[in-house]
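Narrative of activities, Objective 1.

The group set out to show that a structural description can be obtained from nothing but a protein's sequence at a throughput compatible with the screening campaign. Below is one input-output pair from the validation batch, recorded exactly as produced.
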Amino acid sequence: MFCLVALGVILSINILGGESTVKKLLVVAALLLPFNSFAASLSGNDLLAYCPLLLSTGKISSPEDLSKAAHCAGYLGGLNDMSLLFQTVGGLKIYCLPEKGVETGQLIRVAQKWLEEHPAELHEPGRSLFISIMKDNFPCE
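Output recorded for this entry:
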């Protein structure tokens, strides 16, 4: 997360070139505001509330529901992408996906099932639970 923020700062400063320092700081602040709102960790309770909205027709009845559903898909997809990047670059294999990978819908169903079966852990951060979900469902052999 810090790397993305740093990259945004560097890019914004480079893009603005010779502009004033105040203008550069305003651009950086504008970049960070929306980033921070989406960077907050979801708990297992949040994931269990948000993710089913994507799986059933008619459950999304408001813009807030749509935002929650999109947050779930982006959150799980982003965690999966970052984990795969670490595996590729750093060789750290935490879980092993099938050769063809998994679609977002499958990832959401797997996460929902695991969360429903582990209610005592729902207070934990979603990023920690994600690793447990993936290790349990896609172990490396």
